[in-house]
Amino acid sequence: MKPSRSLRFVCTAPVLLVAGCSEWQSALHPYGENARTTLSLILSFAIICTIVWILVMLALAGALLRRRSNAEGLRPPLETDPRRERGFTRMVGSAVAATVLILVGLTIASFFAGKSNAALTGKEMLTVRVTGHQWWWEVRYQDASPSHTIISANEIHVPVGEPVKIELDSGDVIHSFWVPSLAGKRDLIPGRPSEITLLVDKPGVYRGQCAEFCGYQHAHMAITVVAQRPDAFDAWRKAQLADAVPPAGAQQRRGQQVFLSTGCVLCHTIRGTPAGGTSGPDLTHVASRQGLAADTLPMTRGALGAWIADPQSVKPGAKMPRVDLGPDDLNAVVAYVGSLK
Amino acid sequence: MSDAVLRQPIRRQKEEGLKGIRDIGLDDAALHAFLSETWKTPKGFSGWLTTVDHKLIGRRYIVTAFLFLILAGLSALVMRFQLASPESGRIGPDLYNQLFTMHGTTMMFLFAVPVMEAFAVYLVPLMIGTRNVAFPRLNAFSYWVYLGGGLMIWIAFACNTGADAGWFDYVPLGGPEYGIGKRSDFWAQMVTFTEVSALAVAVEIIATVFKQRAPGMTLDRIPLYVWAVLVTSFLILFAMPAVMVSSTMLILDRLVGTHFFNQAEGGDPLLWQHLFWFFGHPEVYIIFIPATGFVSSILPTFTRRPVFGYLAIVLSLISIGFLSFGLWVHHMFATGLPQLGSSFFTASSMMIAIPSGIQIFCWIATLWGGRPIFATPLLFVLGFIFTFVIGGLTGVMVASVPLDLQVHDTYFVVAHFHYVLVGGAVFPLIGAVYYWFPKITGRMMSERLGRWSFWLIVIGFNATFFPMHILGLQGMPRRVYTYPLESGWGGMNLFVSLSALVLLAGFAVFFLNVLASLRNGRIAGDNPWNASTLEWATTSPPQPYNFARLPAVTHGEPLWAEGDTLPAIEGLRVDAREVIAGTVADATPQIREPSADNSIWPLLAALAVGATFLASIFTPWAVVWGAIPVAITLIGWFWPKGTPEDEE
Q1: pLDDT, tens only, B584-626
Q2: Is the Cβ of A110 closer than 8 Å to some Cβ of chain B?
Q3: Cross-chain residue pair B371–A68, CB shorter than 8 Å
C-alpha cells in the first residue's frame, strides 16, 4: 500500500465509516493483537460451553423421555432401586470429574491468553495520554520538549504494527477505554493512572466507546482510533504540531473574532490565537478529526452548525453551554471552526 | 360444640387466674378452640398492624415484593421502548438513567432478596414443624422497615429525585461532587432500610432453623429448601454489613464532608467497589440459593422420589456459600489489578461452577430415577435447567480475565446475569408460587393458564435476552440510553424489544392466574400434590397455630414415610404461645419456649427508625434526635412482662 492510500483513511473518513459499519466497534472483528487473541479465547469458550450445554440438555431429555415400566409406575416413592442409585452416583461422579477437567483447561487457556496480552507491555515506542472527561476524551502525545506535545480530543492516531502505550487517567468520574476491535477495556479511575497497550495490524478507523457508566451522556462518549502506516502517521503528527491555520476570507475572520469575543474562548484552545481555555477540547485542528462532540455527530459543516447553535439539543446535559449567536455570527463561527484542519 | 362454648372455659380460667393448661388429653375440637384463641390475629385494621403471625407477614412480604417486581419490570419495558430504535428520543438520558437505576435497585434490593426472605418466613416454620419464627416481632419490624425503604425510593422517583447512578452507585459519580441533588442519598438510605430488614430476617431464620425444628429432625432430615435458606441467611449476615458500611460512608461523604472515597483527600473510589462487590457478589447467591431450594422441593414431589444426592446437594450449598465470598473481584477486572491477583479470582469464579454443576447433575439424576408428572411447577423447574445452564456457562466465560475485558459492561453481561437471575431464580420462584399457592390460599391455580404462562415466559425470556449476548460481542455497551444508527444494532434491539412484550404477556397470564385462582381456584385440600414435607401435614391455608399437635419426625420425607399417622408431641401449653426449642444438631427437645404475642411496637419502632433514616438524608442531627423516639419504641417493645414460666 502506498502512503497516499493510507492517508485516505483520514481524508475520506465518512465514506469509510459507512463502509465499515458491519464491523462497527465489534469484538468479533479484531484488527489488533490483543483483540485477536481474545476472540480465539471467546470462540473456544463458546464452543466448549455449547457442547456442555447440549450434553446437559441431552441428559435432561433422556430423563424426561425414558420409557418407564408399569411396575415402576406403582412403586412407592421411598423405594428406590439401590443398583440404579449406584449407577447414578457413578454418572454424577463422572460428570463432576469432567466439569473439573474442563474448568481447569479453561482456566489455563484463560491464563495464557492473559499472559500473551500482557506480553506487549514494555515494548512501546510511542505513548499517548488519554484523559476521560464527562463526556469526551482528551488526547495528548507526550514529548520531551513541550513544544512537541500534541493535544487533541476524541481521536487517537497510531502507527500500524507498533505497540502504542495508552496512559489512562480521569479528570472527573470513572470512565472505561474500550476499542473492541483492538483490545479489551481498561477503566480510567481518578487518581489511579493506568495503561493499556494497543497493537493495530491494519490501517483503518476503529471506533470505541466509554464502557463505564459516567452519567448523563455516557451513551455519547466515543473515541476513534485511526491506524496509519508509519510515514502517514509521521505526516499527521507533523501537521498536528503546527499552529492553527489563520482565517482565510472575511467570513472566517469574522468567525474568529466572534469565537474570541464570546464564551467559546473560555473553554477551548486554538493554538496560534489568544484562545487558551482548557476545560473543553482543543480545537486547533478540530476539522481534521472525523467526529464532533465525541463522535456524536460526523464532522460536516451542517453538523458543526447544529452543534454550535444548540449543543443541549444534540447532546442534552453536555457541559458545552448554548452561546446565543445571530445567524450571521453562527455561520461565521462554523466557517472558521470548519477551516481548522 | 361450638367455638363460643369452648372459649367459655378459657375465659373462666383466665379470670380465675389459673394458668398453664397443657394440650395433654384435650380432644381435637378443644385443642383447636384453645390454640386459635391463643394464636389469633385480631380482626380488622388493628390486627393488621399488630400481627406477628409469620404467615400473614410472609404473605404481605410476598405480595409487596411482587408489586415491586411489577414496577421494576415496567421500568425495563420503558427502557426497551426507548432502545427499540437507534437515536430515538422517546425518553431522554435523565429519565433513562433513573429508570435503569430504579430497575436494578428495585429488582435486587426490593424484589429478589425480599421475595426469597418472604417465602422463607412463610415456609420455614411450617416445613420444620413449629408455630412461628424465632423472633416474631423482629419479623414484623423487618417487614415495616422494608416497606418504608421501598416506598421512600419510589416516592422519591415520582418526585423526579430517582437515583440515577446505577444500582452499584459507583463513586465519584454517586459521590458529593457529581451526584446531583439528593438522588444518591435516597438510594444509599434505601440500602440501609432494606439491609436492616434483611439482617433481621436472616437472624430469625437462623435461630428458627437451629432451635425450633420438630423433634427428630436431625441435620440430615432438614428439607433441602430449609438448608438453602439457612445458608442464605448466613450469607446475608456476612455480606450485607459490607454494603451498609459503604452506603453509610457514602452518606457521610455527601452529608458531612468525610472523604472516604475522595482520592484528592486520601480516600479511594476503588474502596467503594471492593466494599460494594464484597456484598454484591454474595448477593447474587442470596437470590440464587433459595431458588435451588425451591427446585429441590418441587422435584421430589413431581418425580415421586426423594432428591438424588441429598448430602451432595447440602455440601454444594454450603460450599457455594463459602466460595461466593471469594469472587467479588471478577466485577473489577477492568480496574487494572495485577495479573496474579486476577488469576486467583478467575480460578475461584470458575470453581463455583463445580458445586452448581453437582446440584444440576443431582437434579437430572432425580428426574432419571423418578416418574415425572408434568404439572406447572415441574415445567418451571425444567425451564430453569434449560435457561440457567446457559447463564452458568456464560458465567464461566466472564470469569476469564481477557474474555471479561471484552464483554464487561456490555450487553453480553446483561444477558448473562439475566439468564442467571431470571432463569436461575425467577423461574423456580414462579414454580414455587404454583407449588405453594394451594398451601397459602387453600386453592389450586389453573394448570391451563399455568402452561400458557410457562411457554410465554420461557420463550419470551430467551428471545429477549439471548440476542443480547451477540449485541454485547458486537460492541454495544450497557447503560446507554441510545446508540447510533450506523452501529447496525437497530434490528436486533427491535427484536429484543418486541420479545419483551411476549415476556410481559407471560407475566400478565401468571398474575391473572393468581388473581382468578384466588376467587375461583379448585379447593386444594391439605396435600394436593401428595408431597412429603411437613407443611403439607396441616390444613390449607394453615391455622394461625400451624399444627394442632407439633409433629415429630423420623425420616427425611416424613409424609411419605409415615403417611397420615405422623407422631406428635404433647405437653405444650395451649393458653399461651409456646414453641419447642431443641438442640442444634439432633433437634432433641430441650425446653418449652414462649413465643411473642401480637404487638404494635414493631410498627412504631419501624416508623421511628424510618423517620430517622429519612431525616438523616437532610441533616446529620436526625441521628441525634431520632435516637429518642427509637429508644422509646424499643423500650416499649422490650418492656418486661411476666413470662408464662414465671407465672407457673
Answers
A1: 999 999 999 999 999 999 999 999 999 999 999 999 999 999 9
A2: yes
A3: yes
Instruction: Report yes or no: B353 and B323 within 8 Å, Cβ to Cβ.
Output: no
Average pLDDT, chain B: 93
Chain A to chain B Cβ contacts (< 8 Å):
257
- Reported as type and span, the H/E element at residue B138 is helix B136-158
User: How far is CA B388 from each of CA A52, B32, B174, B260, rounded to the nearest angstrom?
Assistant: 13, 45, 33, 38
Q: Are the beta carbons of A111 and B346 separated by less than 8 Å?
A: yes
> What Cα–Cα distance (Å) separates residue A207 from each residue in A27, A32, A290, B473, B479?
11, 13, 11, 14, 18
A45/B397 Cβ within 8 A: yes
Q: Give the residue carrying C-alpha cell 453538523.
A: A303
DSSP at B543: P
Measure the CA–CA gap between A287 and A169, rounded to whole angstroms.
Answer: 25
- The whole-number pLDDT of residue A11 equals 39
Q: Does A166 touch chain B (CB under 8 A)?
A: no
| Beta carbons within 8 Å of A40's beta carbon, 6+ residues apart | A113
Length reported for chain A: 341
Q: How far apart are CA B334 and CA A212, in angstroms?
A: 10
Q: Which of A41, A56, A81, A315 to mutate to test binding with chain B, by most B CBs within 10 Å of its CB?
A: A56
Q: Report the alpha-carbon angle B390-B282-B140, nearest 5.
A: 115
Q: Are strands A222-228 and A155-159 parallel, antiparallel or unpaired?
A: parallel
CB atoms A95 and B357 under 8 Å: yes
Question: Given phi > 0 = left and psi -120 to 50 = alpha, else beta, which region is A191?
Answer: left
Tell me the angle at which helices B601-615 and B183-211 cross, rounded to the nearest 10 degrees. 150
pLDDT tens digits, one per residue of A46-82 = 999 999 999 999 999 999 999 888 877 778 888 888 9
Average pLDDT over residues B456-477: 97
Whole-number Å distance between alpha carbons of B482 and B503: 22
Q: How far apart are the first and last CA of chain A?
A: 25
Dihedral of CA atoms A323, A324, A330, A332 in degrees, nearest 10, equals -80
Q: Which residues 37-76 of A have a C-beta within 8 angstroms of B?
A: 37-38, 41-42, 45-46, 49, 52-53, 56-57, 59-60, 62-64, 66, 68, 72-73, 76
Cα atoms in the Cβ-side hemisphere of radius 13 Å centred on B76: 23
Residues of chain B with C-beta less than 8 angstroms from the C-beta of A100: 354
Instruction: From chain B, pick out residues whose CB is under 8 angstroms from the CB of A22.
Output: 488
Phi, psi of A207, rounded to the nearest 5 degrees: -100, 145
Contacts of A198 in chain B (CB under 8 A): none
Residue environment code for B74-111, b if the CB has 16+ CB neighbours within 10 A, otherwise e? ebbbbbbebbbbbeeeebebbbbbbbbbbbbbbbbbbb
User: What confidence tens digit (pLDDT) does each residue in A157-167 have?
Assistant: 999 999 999 99
pTM over 0.90: yes
> Are A14 and A300 spatial neighbours (Cβ–Cβ below 8 Å)?
yes
pLDDT digits (tens, 9 = 90+) for A205-216: 999 999 999 999
Asked if A317 is an interface residue toward chain B (Cβ–Cβ < 8 A), one would say yes
Q: Which of A173, A10, A210 shows the shortest CA–CA distance to B483? A: A210
3-class DSSP state for residue A154? coil
Q: Which residue of A has its CA nearest to B530?
A: A77
Alpha carbons B642 and B328: distance in angstroms, whole number: 48
> Quick check: B308 and A92 CB within 8 A?
yes
The minimum CA-CA distance between B386 and chain A, rounded to whole Å, is: 7
Count of residues for chain B? 648
> CA-CA-CA-CA torsion for B163, B164, B167, B173, nearest 10 degrees?
-110
